[in-house]
Design a protein that fits this description.
The protein is 30% helix and 17% strand. It is α/β, with parallel strands linked by helices. It folds into two domains: 352 residues, TIM Barrel; 78 residues, Immunoglobulin-like. Strands 5-4-3-2-1-7-6 form a seven-stranded parallel β-sheet. Strands 8-9-14-11 form a four-stranded antiparallel β-sheet. Helix 7 links the parallel strand 2 and strand 3. The protein starts with a helix and ends with a strand. The structure holds alpha-D-glucopyranose. The site of alpha-D-glucopyranose has 8 residues, from loops.
Amino acid sequence: MIKKNALVLVSMLCLCSGLFAQKSITGETPEQKAKRMQWFTEARFGMFIHWGLYSQPARHEWVKHNERLTNEQYQKYFDEFNPVNYDPKKWMKAAKAAGMKYAVLTTKHHEGFCLFDSKYTDYKATNTQAKRDLVKEYVEACRAEGLKVGFYYSLIDWHHPDFPIDAVHPQRPDPETDQAYDSLNKGRDINRYRQYLFNQVRELMTNYGKIDILWLDFSFPGKHGKGRDDWGSIELLKMVRKLQPGIIVNNRLDLDDYTDGYDFETPEQVSTDELAKYKGKYWETCQTFSGSWGYYRDENTWKTNRQLLDLLITSTANGGNLILNVGPTAKGEFDYRATSALERLGNWMDANNESIYNCTYAPAGFALPENINARLTYNPVLKKLFLHLFDYPSSGKLVLPGYAGKIKYAQLLNDYSEVKFKEGGSNNADLILAMPELKPPFEVPVIELFLK
Ligand code: GLC
């Protein structure tokens, strides 16, 4: 008896210390958070836009780092920045037509150049040949198309004179000795940079109306890195939430030990196989078409339509979002490869979006047999399962073991035509679908199963 009580006590203590290890900044309850996250979990699909001066060299948004360029060497891109065809209405129309529900634009990337009219720097679009606040037009275009508005803001800044040189800075020393860092960083003051960062985030959270989602990017704590103390992460996050109640913030402020130090996780460029481990959390996988976020003219390994659909469907099938990136050109346009990829996604989404929006992973009891290359999504309100077929059965039938007795009707999602079925197999536990002879004209056809 005593032993048993002691055990109970120990396990209670463990539980409590576990709870205390998860600190909270705002004290928000899981129910309140779920409400705040609702539009995001329903949307499932967004557009990332990486655009800045790096669209001119057109060889990766990290070009300044990769080639160790100085501010002077990089200056030509500022001087020549002239996006004559910038028309974000076109961008947002393309996003909407692809089935995306929100967008996130780089207001400033690591290079430090601001697309917005900040009071705190001259290094901004207003002072280029563009001569205007490009973020303002983007925000208006999002709203005109009914898309939720998102900003990306780089915590890292490779242009600001006070930003201390660290291991990823273009002017990082080689070899990396402490002395070399010390001498390079003489006169640079992180406190002044932090003030700049706060000032700019305050501008973004104040001057553009309601902002739905914010990406702050990124932390790399440790020696010659930067993290929460450098950014003032807790105070920054508090300021953001105060100025924009309801906003959704990503997880790169180095506050992972707080339950509300972020709203969603951001698995970057991971394979579809890795997405299952995020089930049950809030998350959004960010993915490029081709490997680079900024426009990369000569990059030629673009994902296929099938790979992109796989990312979208597998994200939903694991209860998360996909934010797919476009890197517009220096002229201000989506290039032809991005445009055609978006059109193909739109073609699929037009016919099949009900298996994505408002959907998540299937309830327990609906497993997929190993021999089928398919993914399941589920709309819990409508109680519908969506079976995405990556390989179309040539045998004319599809067997779903254990589904018998649970389904009242089945149809193709793209045209609502009936798919007949019967029950059979051992114990009559299998659902046997009589597959339409002709594969529907979609890369990944979807069968909709209405649960009893
Ligand atoms: C990384 C990269 C960056 C990109 C971002 C998107 O942090 O530094 O270039 O903006 O990921 O997730």
